[in-house]
Amino acid sequence: MNDDFGFESILVPYNATAGAEQGLRAAVEFAKKINGQITLITCIENQSILSFFKKYKNQSFEQEKKIIESELKKIESKIKELKLPIKHVILKSSFAPNTIIEYVEKNQIDMVVIGQTKLMKTEGKYHQSMVTYLLQSITCPLLIVK
Known about the structure:
Elements: E1 9-13, H1 18-34, E2 37-45, H2 61-80, E3 86-93, H3 96-106, E4 111-115, H4 121-126, H5 130-137, E5 142-145
Parallel strand pairs: 1-2, 1-4, 2-3, 4-5
């Protein structure tokens, strides 16, 4: 039986939440079976919530990027031990779901794997979850891990 599903490139939105960790674990297991390459994408939004707190007001995109890059490199080294190709990209964004969709289209990503994080009751009233937004807008297969 041929296990090649034609999914060579797997994109995993990653923001260090429990949902992102679940998505990454699922992507790793899937990539092992199909010899796929994983790309972690982290979006730093222009209007980060950190900017509302005085102590983080002066955090620049470059400062945030360095911190995130350091963490992603640790993840990459663990996954490379499994002999899986992995890379990461950190992008400045005004709205993360749109940035992810644009990246998928520009880079011909075959599949997106995302872990679902439950929204608090009040959050659900004001905005859609990233999963819901991607489900409605993305053009490639989307694997949602609950």
